[in-house]
Amino acid sequence: MSEAKIIDGKQIAASVRADVAAEVARLQKEHGLKPGLAVVLVGEDPASKVYVANKAKQTVEVGMNSWEHRLPAETSEADVLAVVDKLNNDPACHGILVQLPLPKHINAEKVLNSINPDKDVDGFHPVNVGRLWVGERALVPCTPTGSVILAKSVLPSLSGLDAVVIGRSNIVGKPVAALLLRENCSVTIAHSRTKNIEDVVKRADLVVAAVGIPEMVKASWIKPGATIIDVGINRVPSENGKTKLVGDVAYEECAKVAGAITPVPGGVGPMTIACLLRNAAQAAAMIAGVKSAFA
Ligand SMILES: Nc1nc(=O)c2c([nH]1)NC[C@@H]1CN(c3ccc(C(=O)N[C@@H](CCC(=O)O)C(=O)O)cc3)C=[N+]21
Fold it and tell me: Which parts of the sequence belong to the Tetrahydrofolate dehydrogenase/cyclohydrolase NAD(P)-binding domain (predicted)?
């Protein structure tokens, strides 16, 4: 069996960012519009801080305004809601991302639902979820958008394919299923209660793994030649006493059976941030009521 093609998420994310930079330049030139993205981070989680800093850097690189609101872990829910409200009413801000997870004393659903849906660059607000499922123009969650772009990089048409999504979260599983349905896939959502999950996955031409269980998907589950998009980012202990990142797919063995596969890191992760920037540019155009290159 030959080795699968490795889908280079870093490279494809760079090309998405180049498209965003071109769109930002066009919005500036044609409409005097400079998109702005605000990120709200509550607490001191070190991984979140690195990730938020990375986002801010890439936001500036594509020519957008970037703001970071770092609030202490003990910030009250009312104070977080007040920050969101201020950003909702700030005409220079077109995108708002509240970094998850939030501290336990804050009701995340309440905070996310307080974001103006037109500035909801995560696409998590129920209004955007509804728009996505009925096929209206929407801000679509970033990781699902990135996953579909990666799948289409090796499968130009997804029409008629059997797609199996493993995982049913609001952040990835459900929206990626909606996007694949829109691409005319026959979509199955498998999850922790699915009977004979390996047999279900084995029917798939396209597998999207988003369960959060390290290396759960085995080579014996994969139809030869299938495309595998691995959304998992799990930090696990490695031999040298440090930690390493692994996906939800047992990469080495599955790469021997699949036709194409995304690595972790360097697969879906970089696409998430690139699609966030894309959403911010789209939100700015939509709020201004001008044509958008993206949706
Ligand atoms: N409101 C909200 N929206 C999010 O989109 C959101 C969030 N909260 N909270 C945290 C998670 C996590 N997340 C990642 C994005 C990119 C990488 C990424 O670029 N990963 C790289 C490198 C990872 C590394 O080396 O640590 C890779 O996979 O190659 C990872 C994780 C977005 N999240």
Answer: 141-285
pLDDT (tens digit per residue) in 233-287:
999 999 889 999 999 999 999 999 999 999 999 999 999 999 999 999 999 999 9
Q: Using an 8 Å Cβ cutoff, are 197 and 178 in contact? A: no
Q: What are 176's two structure tokens?
A: 């990626």
Task: Tell me whether residue 122 is one of the annotated catalytic residues.
Answer: yes
Compute the distance from residue 29 Cα to the ligand 1 centre, in Å: 31
How far, in Å, is the centroid of ligand 1 from the Cα of 51?
6
Please name the residues in contact with 281: beta carbons below 8 A apart, sequence gap of 6 or more: 20, 23, 24, 27, 35, 62, 64, 292, 293, 294
- Is 167 among the annotated ligand-binding positions? yes
Q: Which of 122, 147, 98, 99 is nearest to 269 (CA)?
A: 147
Residue with tokens 């220079």: 92
- Residues 218 and 63: their CA atoms lie apart, in Å, by 42
d(C-alpha 255, C-alpha 241), whole Å: 26
Per the annotation, does 168 bind a ligand? yes
Is beta strand 36-42 parallel, antiparallel or unpaired with respect to 5-6? unpaired
Q: Which residue in 58, 118, 119, 122 is the catalytic one?
A: 122
Q: Which residue in 253, 166, 172 sits closest to 204, CA to CA?
A: 166
Provide the token pair at 252. 């080495």
Structure tokens at 13: 């994310």
Q: Which of 58, 99, 118, 174 is catalytic?
A: 99
Lookup: tokens for 143: 């990781």
Residue 145: closest CA among 119, 164, 171: 171
Q: Domains in the chain, ordered, with CATH? A: 32-116 (3.40.50.10860), 141-269 (3.40.50.720)
Residue 84, sorted as left (phi over 0), alpha (psi -120 to 50) or beta, turns out to be alpha
Complex ipTM: 0.97
